[in-house]
Design brief:
Elements lengths: L8 E2 L7 E6 L5 E6 L6 E6 L4 E3 L7 E6 L5 E6 L6 E6 L6 E2 L6 E7 L5 E8 L2 E8 L6 E2 L7 E6 L5 E8 L1 E7 L7 E2 L6 E5 L5 E7 L10 E7 L6 E2 L7 E6 L5 E8 L2 E8 L6 E2 L7 E6 L5 E6 L6 E6 L2
Length: 314
């Protein structure tokens, strides 16, 4: 839909749940996961809704991630009993299992040069971050600490931001891509970190530190990548989640919950110019900018199940 809420375009349309849209590097296609076949599979579609099924297995195929050049897709599948990391061509051909541990391996994310993949390995109650070459070799434990590490995200300059409970509370950390120079960024009980396009700032959500009574709503914060200049850019009487940067780094979209619904808002990175982008009656979630910043994909259950929508921002 257009930014004023008109010309809404629904790009999936079936009785299944379609979720977690992920733009191709050139902005022409979306990856997503869907249970339309009875279990979770990975599909790809153009922004006009032309659909292609990429996986077809009795197992659950989840967490699809484009390689930076758009030629390959990493994903997680339990087709061998445990969730392991696989890689396939962009048309779904030649799937190759990269990890084969007794643990659960999920959340693959590509390095900026496409040569390595970071992922999360879960053992019982503990999660740890690993990386490996894109062919599955040299699997290395990154966050060498007994505390959990999860939600890794590469920056454009090769560092990794992640969330950890190593100090009892969830906080965000950064480290080099060899696991060195681990640094806690903020004292706040933080989560859901996202790099700015230039890797100079990180957006995240955390409880409002000035809340004096009742529930401390989660607000959106921005911090410099060296840990300085922490600032809360939202001041809403409800909690906000999953911040995502615009490609030009000037604004951030996020989801704000007002149970039983959630809508998508946009705000400039300095905390000005707050505006609502969606006003659905139920849950609008997982907003993702297209690479050129002209469109926003999101999932919504406004029709009873999760479908994917695309709106024009300009």
């Amino acid at each position: 839909m257009d930014a004023d809420g008109t010309n809404l375009k629904r790009v999936t349309n079936n009785s299944a749940n379609n979720s977690e849209p992920n733009w191709s590097p050139d902005g022409s296609r979306l990856l997503f996961q869907t249970d339309r076949d009875g279990n979770l599979e990975i599909y790809m579609m153009s922004v006009d809704g032309e659909l292609q099924q990429l996986t077809d297995d009795a197992a659950d195929d989840i967490c699809p991630a484009w390689s930076p050049d758009g030629s390959r897709i990493a994903f997680s599948s339990n087709r061998d009993g445990k969730q392991h990391i696989y890689i396939m061509n962009v048309d779904g051909s030649s799937p190759v299992e990269l990890t084969n541990s007794p643990a659960e391996d999920t959340e693959p994310t590509w390095s900026p040069d496409g040569k390595r993949i970071a992922f999360v390995r879960s053992r019982e109650t503990n999660r740890e971050i690993y990386f490996m070459n894109a062919d599955g070799t040299n699997q290395t434990h990154l966050n060498g600490d007994p505390g959990s590490g999860f939600s890794p995200k590469w920056s454009s300059d090769g560092r990794i931001v992640f969330v950890s409970r190593r100090e009892e509370q969830r906080r965000i950390y950064v480290m080099d891509d060899d696991g060195g120079n681990v640094e806690r960024l903020a004292e706040l009980r933080a989560n859901q970190a996202a790099w700015s396009p230039d890797s100079k700032r990180i957006a995240f959500n955390a409880p409002d530190p000035k809340a004096v009574a009742g529930y401390p709503f989660l607000q959106i914060f921005v911090i410099d990548s060296d840990g300085g200049n922490v600032r809360m850019i939202t001041k809403l009487p409800r909690s906000s989640f999953v911040p995502s940067w615009s490609p030009d780094g000037k604004s951030i979209v996020f989801v704000t919950e007002t149970l039983p619904k959630a809508n998508i808002f946009q705000i400039d990175q300095d905390g000005t110019n707050l505006r609502r982008l969606t006003a659905g009656p139920t849950f609008d979630d997982r907003p993702a900018y297209s690479p050129d910043g002209s469109k926003l994909a999101f999932q919504s259950n406004r029709d009873g199940n999760y479908e994917i929508y695309v709106m024009n921002l300009r």
